Amino acid sequence: MAEITYLEAIRQALFEEMERDENVFCLGEDIGVYGGAFKVTDGLLARFGEQRVIDTPISEAAIVGAAAGAAHMGMRPVAEMQFIDFISVAYDMLTNYVATSRYRAGLPCPIVVRGPSGGYVRGGPFHSQNPEAAFLHTPGLKIVYPATASDAKGLLKAAIRDDDPVLYFEHKFLYRRVKEVVPDGDHVVPIGEARLAREGTDLSIITYAACVWKALEAAEQLEKEDGLSVEVLDLRSLLPMDDAAIIATVRKTNRALIVHEDTRTGGVAGEITARINEQAFEWLDAPLLRVTAADVPLPYSPPLEDYVLPQTADIVAVARRLAAY
Amino acid sequence: MAEITYLEAIRQALFEEMERDENVFCLGEDIGVYGGAFKVTDGLLARFGEQRVIDTPISEAAIVGAAAGAAHMGMRPVAEMQFIDFISVAYDMLTNYVATSRYRAGLPCPIVVRGPSGGYVRGGPFHSQNPEAAFLHTPGLKIVYPATASDAKGLLKAAIRDDDPVLYFEHKFLYRRVKEVVPDGDHVVPIGEARLAREGTDLSIITYAACVWKALEAAEQLEKEDGLSVEVLDLRSLLPMDDAAIIATVRKTNRALIVHEDTRTGGVAGEITARINEQAFEWLDAPLLRVTAADVPLPYSPPLEDYVLPQTADIVAVARRLAAY
Amino acid sequence: MATRAGGARDTQRTARAARQAAAPAEGRPSALLGRDGKVELYYYMRLTRSLEERLVNLYRQTKVVGGLFRSLGQEADAVGSAYALDRGKGDILSPLIRNLGSMLVQGARPVEILRQYMAKGDSPTRGRELNIHYGDLARGFIGQISHLGDMVPVMAGVTLSFKMRGERRVGLVYVGDGATSTAAFHEGINLAAVQRCPLVVIVENNGYAYSTPLARQTAVSELRDKALAYGIPGIRADGNDVLATYDVTKQAVERARRGDGVTLIELVTYRRKGHAEHDNQSYVPEGEIERWETTNDPIDRYVRELLEADRVPPGELSAIDERVRDEIDRATAEAEAAPLPEPEDSLVGVYSDPPAMEALWYKASMVDRPARERAAARGGSDG
Amino acid sequence: MATRAGGARDTQRTARAARQAAAPAEGRPSALLGRDGKVELYYYMRLTRSLEERLVNLYRQTKVVGGLFRSLGQEADAVGSAYALDRGKGDILSPLIRNLGSMLVQGARPVEILRQYMAKGDSPTRGRELNIHYGDLARGFIGQISHLGDMVPVMAGVTLSFKMRGERRVGLVYVGDGATSTAAFHEGINLAAVQRCPLVVIVENNGYAYSTPLARQTAVSELRDKALAYGIPGIRADGNDVLATYDVTKQAVERARRGDGVTLIELVTYRRKGHAEHDNQSYVPEGEIERWETTNDPIDRYVRELLEADRVPPGELSAIDERVRDEIDRATAEAEAAPLPEPEDSLVGVYSDPPAMEALWYKASMVDRPARERAAARGGSDG
Ligand SMILES: Cc1ncc(C[n+]2csc(CCOP(=O)(O)OP(=O)(O)O)c2C)c(N)n1
Ligand SMILES: Cc1ncc(C[n+]2csc(CCOP(=O)(O)OP(=O)(O)O)c2C)c(N)n1
Ligand SMILES: [Mg+2]
Ligand SMILES: [Mg+2]
Question: How far is CA C145 from CA B88, C142, C172, C199, in A?
């Protein structure tokens, strides 16, 4: 068993699911002949043909809407946004049509909408977005955002098999930078379960996506330099959120920081804070602190992007403050 | 000086601002001849003519985009969404183009996007939405959501004069149900300042829009039946948020509940919780509790809508729990 | 000046050819309808109108929750076009707010409509959605949402799946004149066109979008021209002539079934009532409504045709009117008797799993159910 | 069958009339350009190409941050169309990614472009936005954002304001063939058309949208047909003929200035490079690129025309090439010498008020500035 990249894990999940179930098909811009802007769908066209790997016009609302219609008829569409930033064009379709379909009409809408997300890549304000907070607020959707190759594969399989719509965000910084041996066989990671990425006893870092790796780096450094034992919880699923795992780590360490790459105000960390506050208030020995991007559109020049996005040094600084509280 | 309704206050603000500044104009669906679905723009066409009161095609993205373009050229457009639910179609324009305009291009984009929002009116899932949480997450936008006729007028004037884009949500349940004498003259309410709607010492209710009235009812009842002194803070502005006022009330009463009509997960209450947690942790004698809509698309039948949305009785129940904590 | 092709004329030729390909042939499909079919068309038009009239009564008695939307004077276009689908083959349509008639043709029952409008617990959406916003895949109709245009991409996807699976089924989607300006209409019809989906797009041109006349909606005077931007045939027909409507739709449906792709059909009609019951139509030029009412009522026109051309005895039609009245009376009684939904049903069915959202802990004190005690007892701690 | 109007023929007549109204008259506008104007067109085309070639060098040296987008073989359409605007009158354009040439015509300076690509602190966007995404109202161009189509509604609004204020200014917006499928294109052009805004929409048909050929983007074969859905003239011209491009655009600009509304112009050209530098164009049929390069390079074609028809001495053109090279050399040196932005500049200018966002308290430990001490001293408490 060889190591595979995060990107290859996604490709494998698509491949295997399309082999497994003939109702699974892909649609999106330049996913066929070209294999996708990042080559995530490379080889799918050759294997599955034009009927199941559909190059569409530049029409994100129609891509999502058509996926929904096909899903009603029993298909399992996987729609690609060339960059996840363009999901904004499909915001109405997703929040109003797709998310409410089962509830208002009893009509299942098992679609997956996936695409390259996130920053640290000098992509500028329109090729670096983290759209999770905009959808966290929509009952009827599910949201996953894996950090590892295994989870990338297992969560995509779970998303495709899920009977409800799932937004699957893949972090483009991790595409080729993260590698591991992925479990053999039909590896499925259930939606809604967090992953304990590192055990610790002094404080908890609750995070997801690319920031998991920064949190792990920070934990390492804090252990070496400060002798602190830091627990890192990788949420993986944001909707539904694994309250049990969040509460467990907070009750264990009594101190938590929440880290995400997305901007601060209105970001996912607020929701996590509220849940901890409601369910583990008496266990808190210090305020919950957030490490996030600054509240600005993400600029492109390296010194600006580096300053705006959360870095390992930021996590270390805040963790020290928290430990000393 | 006579009492005017919340709706009339909005109409007056539009009227007065269009009189004051010839660059102010309105555009939207059925706002001219018809005077708007709720008659908010009634009379504007007759007074200001077709050039300044523009009936558009059913094209929310174009309405917002065109407003932005005109704003670049020095105009002060006020765009109406016939129901605020349709702002979802303009989500891309607002979050990507409008919000970033000043930052990425140095191009001011002083537009106002306004429209009837909120539930309690048997409007069903697509005529009752509270879209604030979807935009709270977007640096570059401002968001206001008044509860009283005076604030409806004063905040709309401030929004029109603001040099940045403002989302102005008006609560349709309040349109004709809320009345008061509005201050004479050029009444402007600064964006970013909360309003203390009721003073109290035992606990704080932090809220906005229609829920302000439910909170005041609850406070009344709690005073009568439980002898509790309840403070009610009406945020009025959500972005920027008045941290000073929020922190002041929490430090004063040491117990707070946050009430909003919007769904719970990913709602504005999460952000407020995080801010209080960060800035007033040591002052909290009890967990911050949320009273919100349940996490479902808003159903239309009265028993369902009533059950899903926050009611005065809910606030009373939670306040009692909090007081007893 | 043009390099890659030969200028304006070619395009016009293409457009004309496309139109001719879909233009009605000599033998009108409706000629094959037979007497029963023709009378059935009358039944559905009458049922539509009478059911809406009943709804007006209920609305005035404040038994309707929310607004009331009429299709008075537009019954022919909805009924005639829907009738062109083949329910036996699994064709599917998606109606808009003025296409009650199309749903009735697909088998929607008056009692369902009444329950929807009265927000009853046993309405098709269990009180969650308003008016005619509901669907049933088994009977071949998908419920619309309010956001105009959104059903076009959805029906593109429905029909894409027909194509992918080699099923010889057809989809039909309605939009209003106003909805042609929406983002979703454009993206959806273009995707369907380029994928040659078996889809018929009916543009119901009733002259207004709420208060906005066509001339403020678009600079084209005929909406069939919208088809030219998508490389598909655009047909225009008299939407107040039920047989003409049937004919053009039938041809487009068969074209789609043959695998020749999307057709756009503009059906010209007129909205005689306001956008909804509350709208007083003050923006309508004087006399316009009366003119359409007196000279171009689709039911009056069809009755004349049935009596004169098809020699249907008047008594047969009044018997149908009678039957429709009975049906609606029974449905009204049934719908009125039904209870409103249970509050907690609002938590059910957002996801397949979990089957219901957990009740917010403090709601327990309001609905007195043992199942909620546990949650309440937990204290302010379960979110 | 059609009631309110007379069927297919009328529409075609309208469409034809609209086209003729905008079709080039006998005297081509470019005939009035004069020798200087014609030579200047050459200068801008050459400047575009040479500047991009310099960028390729810098890209290979990894001095460009992010992707590099070429307009090789498309210089004529951008330059010729922009040249038809009247900068003195305050006309404004909004370019797309392959319209560097149009910005240069409006007065964008090579050093600005280079600084943008190198993410420098003194670039027009201070390192916030990429490549040619920037604008300057004073010089008459507005910067695009990445989301395709979004500039169409924005330019509808810009030109709406011209109309409202009675200014005789014109706007011009570029979209690619692929962007015609976007929601924003549709909503924006329709609004502009119905409002008769003084707007020219250039659809640059270069055969591909990333890897997607036109035939998968839309079922029309000529993009000018998109105009027919909006009731506006649609013109098609050879985008690799700079004078033809100038002519059709000039006529559309004057039409707009007269108050006759929107024109859509399809400029036929070809994208000889990949979507961006990293794209190897494996999806392009063999020989296609070479054919365009050898037989239809817009600069080669124009050079022949200048030398033969206008009898410009070859030395004059090579002097321009020289001047361009010098200009770019100087600009490169200047741009390379400039520093990257200061990290904290990232906090400035989200709003007019406050002028900068407060730094997150923990960032203070990273950048050692006294101003931040205060925030840090406050502890974990200022959000
Ligand atoms: C995206 C969107 N914007 C606005 C509305 C509000 N709205 C509801 S119906 C209507 C007019 C519809 O006109 P048309 O499409 O011609 O249909 P008709 O009512 O005439 O049948 C409008 C503007 C909406 N439902 N969806
Ligand atoms: C709304 C949106 N969807 C997707 C993209 C990604 N994207 C960037 S350029 C491009 C192709 C553009 O093709 P075209 O419009 O023909 O312009 P060209 O590159 O050929 O000049 C795509 C799909 C985008 N920028 N915006
Ligand atoms: Mg209409
Ligand atoms: Mg192209």
Answer: 13, 10, 16, 19
ipTM of the prediction: 0.96
Assess B59–A contact: CB distance below 8 Å, yes or no. no
CA distance C212 to D191: 13
**Gap from B53 CA to chain D (nearest CA, Å):** 11
Q: Compute the nearest-CA separation of D187 from chain B (Å).
A: 5
The answer to pTM > 0.90 is yes
Q: So what's the pLDDT on residue C26?
A: 54
CB C245 within 8 A of CB C238: yes
Distance CA B295, CA A241 (A): 13
Decide: B305 and B299 in contact? Cβ < 8 Å.
Answer: yes
8 Å CB contact of B92 and D161: no
Candidates D185, D216, D268; nearest CB to C4 = D268
Q: What 3 state SS string does chain D have?
A: CCCCCCCHHHHHHHHHHHHHHHCCCCCCHHHHCHHHHHHHHHHHHHHHHHHHHHHHHHHHCCCCCCCCCCCCCCHHHHHHHHCCCCHHHCCEEECCCCCHHHHHHCCCCHHHHHHHHCCCCCCCCCCCCCCCCCCEHHHCECCCCCCCCCHHHHHHHHHHHHHHCCCCCCEEEEEECHHHHCHHHHHHHHHHHHCCCCEEEEEEECCEECCEEHHHHCCCCCHHHHHHHHCCCEEEEECCCHHHHHHHHHHHHHHHHCCCCCEEEEEECCCCCCCCCCCCCCCCCCCHHHHHHHHCCHHHHHHHHHHHCCCCCHHHHHHHHHHHHHHHHHHHHHHHHCCCCCHHHHHECCCCCCCECCCCHHHHHCCCCHHHHHHHHCCCCCC
pLDDT at C27: 83
Active site residue A127: yes
Residue C62 one-letter amino acid: T
3-state DSSP assignment of residue A179: strand
Interchain CB contact of B263 with A (< 8 Å): yes
Nearest CA to ligand 1 atom 21: C176
Cβ distance A71 to C162 less than 8 Å, yes or no, reads no
The pLDDT, as a whole number, for residue C138 is 97
Exposure on the CB side of residue C11, measured as CA atoms within 13 A: 27
Question: For chain A, which ranges sit under pLDDT 70?
Answer: none
Average pLDDT over residues C223-246: 98
Overall residue count recorded for chain A in this entry: 325
What six digits make up the tokens of C245? 């409507």
